[in-house]
Amino acid sequence: MQAGGIHVTELVFLLLLFFVVSFAVLARRLETPYPIVLVMAGLVLSFIPGTPHVQLNPDVVFLVVLPPLLYAAAWQTSWREFRFNMVSISMLAFGLVGFTVLGVALVAPLVFRGFDWRLGAVLGAVVATTDAIAATAIAKRVGLPRRIIDILEGESLVNDASGLVALEFAVAALVGARTATWSGGLLRLVYSVVVGLLAGLLIGLVVEWFEQFVEDGPIEITLSIMVPYATYLAAEAMRASGVLGVVACGLYLSRKSSEFFSAAVRIQAWAFWDALTFLLNGLVFVAIGLQLPYVLAEIHEFRFGVLVVYGLLFSAILIVLRLLWMYPGAYVAYFVRNRIFHHNVQVPTGKQIFVVGWTGMRGVVALAAAISLPFSLSDGTPFPQRNFILFLTFSVILVTLVLQGLSLPYLIRALGLSGAEGPDCEEAEARSLMLKAAIEHLEKKRGVKSEDFASVSEEMLRLYRQRLEGAEQDACATPERSSVLAKRVELIRELARVERQTAVQLRNQGRINDEVLRELQYELDLTETKYALASRRMKRD
């Protein structure tokens, strides 16, 4: 980012935040995933005179933006589903990345003038990684089955590591004029994966131990900000995968956080990380759209119309390569999971495979990888086709994100995959078992304490039995029962709003002070949040 001083930098940053907030509101109004709207908005803004001069720095992306986004994504990933789908995820995160690099290395010399297989491998490695936020944000909004979303999330968490290792190897072979070998690349990948995972787990263990001595929201949130950066830098210092280190640390601490986070800290941490990830993603997607003038300014040997054709052609090649890999890859994963790991999963349908193949959207990691390419080779000559690679990468991001992202809802509905999961009976069963455990605990404590405690215990038993009865009625409810539940939830939220308005009036009349109001609002906020989640869950089901 070029700026004339700290005040100019602050002004540019504020303008970017304004763009993010404004276009995110527009995305909500249009019911369109915000990554698509923000990229398009940035693209339009880039051609308006006076728009802030913002240029992506790959170091900022890899060292500042990527670690917390990966950490937050890993924190929200279910380890059970991640482990269960590991074979399918690996076929995409490692197999598809390798197939993409190989495919582009073979095809690029036939399509683009001045490319050989080594330069094609560099281009393939740059665009091999998919974007975590774009694909899953779109998939969740349109109601894809949970199994598909789990695989897409897992792929986008892991393939950054394999793609960046492939890029390192391809660039080294080109810049240093070394002969690339499969054994060297495989050993480098194994080292990067194993050491990265060990670094992440080790830091996770240290953080878990430290959390035993801390019970303070601001301190623990500050620690959670430090963790992804420390993990990424530690793994990178050992020339291992910082991406996998952060993912491993995030998965481990997410699973252990139920034991060391208090209820208050958990609520504060979720709110903070929701805001931080939205902010970082918003800035990144707007910045992607703003890059086009810089990309075009470096290319002089092609007319704009020719560049558009090349961009569309290369995007089509990548989409076809992904689809070509999907079908054999999915059936190999099915065979391995059933015959070797005995998962007893159903064979994926052609429709499901096609949808996963269609969600190969690229994002900021691909663009940062292209920008990070060196400017010269070891002999001092300019890096061949660097600017053209940067343009092709930008084109792929734009085409896959916008074209595939906007068409995905219609495709899912046309294939009949939208909302195929039905009610979440697993959650309902968990609620019932939790209430039964509480009732059993209360029954054991009856008669152990004083008579006063016995009366309280009986009261609590009646309350929990009523809750259990309601939970069992709500479990996998019929459409008629769901309609009644939805009306009940809406009425409870309406009553909470009435209570809040009354509390504000009491404060305005001077009958309570602001501290009392904040306490009352906090209780009402918890109630309303609880039923807001229930409302969203019923709409999803």
**Structural domain tally:** 3
β-strand number? 0
Compute the gyration radius: what is it?
Answer: 26 Å
Helical content class? over 70%
Mean pLDDT over all positions: 83
Helix and strand run: HHHHHHHHHHHHHHHHHHHHH
CATH architecture classification of the largest domain: Up-down Bundle
What separation lies between the terminal Cα atoms? Answer: 45 Å
In one word, what is the shape? globular
Counted by DSSP, the helix tally is 21
Poorly predicted runs are: none
Strand content: under 5%
Q: What name does CATH use for the topology of the largest domain?
A: Na+/H+ antiporter like fold
CATH class of the largest domain: Mainly Alpha
Major sheet: none
Task: Tell me the structural class.
Answer: mainly alpha
Write up this protein.
The protein is an all-alpha fold and 541 residues long. It folds into 3 domains: 57-415, Na+/H+ antiporter like fold (Up-down Bundle); 422-476; 492-541. It is 79% helix and 0% strand. The chain contains 21 helices and no strands. The protein has helices at residues 6-30, 34-45, 58-75, 79-84, 86-111, 117-126, 132-142, 146-175, 182-211, 217-237, 242-260, 263-289, 292-297, 304-339, 350-358, 364-371, 386-415, 425-445, 451-474, 479-508, 514-540. The mean pLDDT is 83.
Describe this structure in a few short sentences.
By secondary structure, this protein is mainly alpha-helical. It has 21 helices and no strands. The chain has helices at 6-30, 34-45, 58-75, 79-84, 86-111, 117-126, 132-142, 146-175, 182-211, 217-237, 242-260, 263-289, 292-297, 304-339, 350-358, 364-371, 386-415, 425-445, 451-474, 479-508, 514-540.
